[in-house]
Amino acid sequence: MSSLSVRRWVHVFSFVSLSSIFLYLYGRYAYSLDRSQFFSGWVLLTAIVFLAAYNVRKKLPFIPLGSSATWLQTHLNVGWLTFLIFAIHLDLRFPTGAFESVLAALYLTVAVSGVFGLCISRIFPRRLSQRGRDSLSGGEEDRRRHGEEVIFERIPVYRRQLREWAEVLVLESAKESASPTIAAFYRDRLHCFFAFPRNFVMHVIGSGRPLHLLMAEFTVVRRYLSDADRATLDKLEQVVRAKNDLDYSYSLQFVLKSWLFVHVPLTYGLLVFAVFHGVLVYAFAGGSR
Amino acid sequence: MRAVASISIHRPQRWDEPFSDAMSDADVDWLLTKPPLSRIDPSKFPSATSLREILRNDTRIVRSQPGDIIVREGDYGHSAFLILQGRVRVILGQLDEEILGRQQTRKKTFLQVLRQAWANPRLPEVRDAARYGKASGTDQRGQGSEVRVFLQDAPAIFARQETVLLEEGTFFGEIAALGRTPRTATVIADGECALLEIRWQGLRDIRRWADEVKAYIDQLYRERSLKVHLKATPVFTHLSEEDLGAIAEHTSFESYGSFDWHGTYTQLEKLDPSERVLHEPIIANEGDYPGGLIMIRAGFTRLTERVDRGDQTVSYLGRGAAFGFSEIAHNWRFEGQVPLQQTLRAIGYVDVLRVPTFIIEKYVLPTIPENLLPPPIKVRTTARSAWKEAGRPGLDAGLLEFFVDNRVVNGTATMLIDLDRCTRCDDCVRACAAAHGNNPRFIRHGKRHGRYLVANACMHCVDPVCMIGCPTGAIHRDSYKGQVVINDSTCIGCSTCANSCPYDNIRMVQIRDRSGAVIQDQNTCLPILKATKCDLCGDQLGGPACQRACPHDALIRMDMADHQALLRWVDR
Lengths: 289, 572
Hints:
The structure holds two protein chains of two kinds. Chain A is mostly helical. Helix content of chain A is 79%, strand content 0%. Chain A has helices at 3-31, 36-59, 68-89, 98-130, 141-146, 155-177, 181-195, 200-205, 209-222, 227-258, 260-284. Chain B is α+β, with helices and mostly antiparallel strands. In chain B, 26% of the residues lie in helices and 23% in strands. Chains A and B meet through helix 3, helix 4, helix 5 and helix 10 of A and helix 3, helix 14, strand 18 and helix 16 of B.
């Protein structure tokens, strides 16, 4: 069994153990007619504070607080556990009060965004590495041979390079063959394509339909061209495919980076609301026992 | 199509760029009167590489002032020295790292580490200008790569340290130059002296054609290093001192490939991989009689097997590894004789020792413990297929070829990223920046094979060509863990290391003070440059920040010599 599989089983085991311990203790509170909601509330708050602490660990990478990978695995385990605690804490009902509803919605948004982040962090990297810059046809010899990792911040530069390359092809074609077709095709169909990232959603869901449709238009145009212009169109097609790959990379990396802008700020909001919720509970419950 | 005019030039020759432009005929005449050069018979040299031409093109006369540091212990050099006039002192003990222009890596305390959270400058490459020029005990003269570092109070250091005096006519630095091993001692000018610095190509040719020089250098190596090397080789560990001595007497020294391989590497890189292999000199050929045990003393080799019409890489061997023992042992033990099963090729520059088969049969095989004997060789009767054979252990053939072709195998801390797990979050880059005053010391970018990326981060090479030629010794191996580090205080920004690094992992940066003002040379008003690179977070608690910061275990700093660890990581 590989080391990652072993680790996965260790985490499944620890999740089951933690859940069992929680359920056992919760059961003890319930049997003793104690306020079990206080117990589950405190455990849930502690767990959320611990989950939020991972972001602090990330901000202080130089402090030897254990590896980020260990933190993430623990974060995931505790995160799954909070689903269970949350469900028990709410007696499997959605609250009716405005404040509690917002608090519950905040928790659910943070938790669901976390699950979403987990899913895409397992799926998107593989998709990116399968269709990276090495599938771009416009690179130099070395890039074709070894491929190149596309850095997100450099994508606008690559996009501009591809647009300029396409424009050079179109202008040279217009100058040398005096045929208006390629220039018109570029103006009407490709100019917008090269100007911005395109087909964001389709790339995220992994659909090849937009490229397929565009290629069909290339086929339509090709039949009316001279041999020289067909050669230009072939090169243009390569640039379009390269731009499509770049958009693909942009879309996936954008999602990989942006989900944290939901998950992290809402976690802090959740913490504030949860603390306030605790204060209110104690204020109106006559104090803790 | 427009016709492209061709340009005719003279075919580049070996001595188009002599070691020194200042070497004149009169200098060469004078050199030929100085022993031991005067004792060499010039007629033994071929006309294409005559002794005169070697001296004119591969040597230079260096005049040193009292206290000049000529070579530093631990540095890598590409030249040896012959004392023409005056004398030098070899320091037998260890000088302070600071005197040698190095920094001593000290771990930060917890509070110092914590302080980085708020004290890191917001601007890039901020330095305290006041700390430059305060190296204790040394000073510099000259400019650029010609700069000379000298001890301010050499007599006091000579008095404190145990030294050996070398007089006129003595060679030093030849073992490190030919073997690409670190200098074993620091040598300092004791008074004014004139030295003949011979670059390794010239020394190699003199050694080849002048028997007395060859005997002298080989003897030095036999006396100083060979027995140590033999003892460290597993198949010799059971032998007595006497037997080891006999083996050392029969061991020959061979070098393959180009010493300056980092220059030709960029050219070779453009070739098709199947052609690239053909440019690597063959040390021992598959199918040949196993004439001796080959031990790698320095550099890297590629092991290939003939498959179909090409050569497939099956492994790589580095310093300390041996080749050919299985075949020799098999032939000694069994009736059916086998030739060499694989080809051994030099990647870059390789220095090997060869122990003849009859010596192995006489001294090693009769006494070797049974557990050290390799299993019998099963000779294949069918041709090998290029297609990956099921059940064959080891790395995927394509990945192995990629690592060897790109000489990633040189690294002791190569940054490998598994792109199937990397979410491109850049936590590694941010952690690196946070641990280095807000300056990342690597780029998450580099050569890629399938799901694996070799990032542009210093690999802390086994064969650190970047260390050759640093005029101040600023780039050096850390005495604590052996990683290659740069002392910012003594780096003069000459870019020698950055130009030499074949992997583009050293960056030259402009520096500024806390206000943001670029620090410049007061004479030329040009910005001061400093070489920067990954230091493996030697001063941080907990090891490399990049690896610790990766949430998905996608990034690792890998010692490529540890095949098992590499295999475990790839197969995890």
